[in-house]
Design brief:
By secondary structure, the protein is mainly alpha-helical. The chain is built from 8 helices and 2 strands. The protein has a two-stranded antiparallel ribbon.
């Protein structure tokens, strides 16, 4: 709506970050001008207010999720790369103690168990495309966060790269390790 707005409104919004554009849009008032300009400003102000309301709801929801995870398994949030949302997904998939006979069963549910993909003299494994895709996405988020911010993970990636592993194989191994770590934390906490 901003891109098709009148020149005055576009110059007001130009160079502002998205947050500043939303804040500025809430202050828009209907001015004299064509009916289309007034309608655009009214709708921009309404959309900006809705965005701010939804942002407040998301922050409250995240606070509530963090409180629940802290109550159920506080040590899970202490691990690197695990935030309240990914921890809540892992807790939901894990459900209760004894649901999985071992960490391999949890990894299989997460879709991070290795699947043999060997051919001839080459022995390798590929990514498992089965299991709980939401849990798999949460593990992927944790793995990518650790790849950026966690020094032991960076060292592991460098070591595996020098061994000739591909980035996909390294990510698969890392996700498997994270699933093992999460399962052990959840089982130990209860």
């Amino acid at each position: 709506m901003i891109l098709t707005a009148d020149d005055d409104l576009r110059t007001q919004m130009r160079g502002l970050s998205t947050l500043r554009q939303v804040q500025h849009a809430t202050t828009l008032t209907t001015t004299s001008g064509s009916g289309l300009d007034r309608l655009r400003r009214t709708h921009l102000a309404t959309l900006a207010e809705q965005i701010q309301t939804l942002d407040r709801l998301l922050k409250a929801n995240l606070t509530e999720i963090r409180t629940l995870v802290d109550k159920l398994c506080p040590t899970l949030l202490d691990q690197p790369g695990i935030g309240p949302v990914t921890a809540a997904i892992a807790l939901t998939a894990w459900s209760h103690p004894g649901r999985f006979r071992n960490e391999a069963a949890f990894a299989s549910l997460a879709g991070v168990s290795p699947v043999p993909a060997s051919s001839g003299r080459i022995t390798r494994h590929r990514l498992n495309r089965g299991g709980d895709r939401t849990l798999n996405a949460a593990l992927h988020t944790i793995a990518k966060t650790r790849q950026r911010c966690h020094q032991p993970t960076k060292d592991y990636i460098n070591r595996r790269t020098t061994e000739g592993r591909t980035p996909a194989e390294i990510t698969r191994s890392l996700k498997r390790y994270i699933a093992r770590q999460i399962w052990r934390t959840l089982e130990a906490t209860t």
